[in-house]
Amino acid sequence: xxxxxxxxxxxxxxxxxxxxxxxxxxxxxxxxxxxxxxxxxxxxxxxxxxxxxxxxxxxxxxxxxxxxxxxxxxxxxxxxxxxxxxxxxxxxxxxxxxxxxxxxxxxxxxxxxxxxxxxxxxxxxxxxxxxxxxxxxxxxxxxxxxxxxxxxxxxxxxxxxxxxxxxxxxxxxxxxxxxxxxxxxxxxxxxxxxxxxxxxxxxxxxxxxxxxxxxxxxxxxxxxxxxxxxxxxxxxxxxxxxxxxxxxxxxxxxxxx
Length: 257
Fold this sequence. Notes:
This protein is of the alpha/beta class. The protein folds into two domains: 5-200 and 249-256, Rossmann fold (3-Layer(aba) Sandwich), CATH 3.40.50; 205-240, no CATH class. The chain is 44% helix and 18% strand. The chain contains eleven helices and seven strands. The protein has helices at residues 5-13, 15-20, 26-43, 65-69, 86-95, 106-111, 134-144, 179-188, 205-216, 221-241, 243-246, and strands at residues 56-59, 79-83, 100-103, 119-125, 145-154, 192-199, 249-256. Helix 7 (134-144) links the parallel strand 4 and strand 5 (145-154). Helix 9 (205-216) runs antiparallel to helix 10. Residues 1-5 have low confidence and may be disordered.
């Protein structure tokens, strides 16, 4: 499951994460909206609120925003985040000082700080597609905690048919999934699905808001007529009629052994 040293540096040096680590940057502002209105919105819908949950961990927490903003009454000092990027964790500690953050891999956490912590939930949000051995990471999460919350991007669709997945992928996605792949991955890891839902990002009000801002804000009139409006009409058709074939979706699930 370990990435190479270069893969660790990827998350320190990638422009995406540099922007996330810049307070007030428009990209970070948009990202925080996506955390609240997309990732945490649907992860929380399958969260086991009836169970006794006292400690939660996010693997691959990046800048720590998801775990710190997750809508649960678990105290911040009982929330944990680990990431292979020292710069991401450094930022997370400054931004969310009450949450417990650690640099390293999941294996290192399990044999170190996490060894004596009884964990109720492990969150894997947009992380399984980034690791060499997705089955093993999911299996370890299921063995460590009572539940696993997953957010798996399912990108096997017409819109990504030409994307070159693997170590050269610009976003670090090593593979693409569809629903069957996600279900097989979960079964191969020895886990069962307690609850799940599948959502399309292009159907969210937030996506439409961002799209309109990108296409129409501060755009000259001639570009509105020649480019922005025609593009919006095409995208509106694709996003509302052809989205099941042309657009990726996400699997939000609650898993257990």
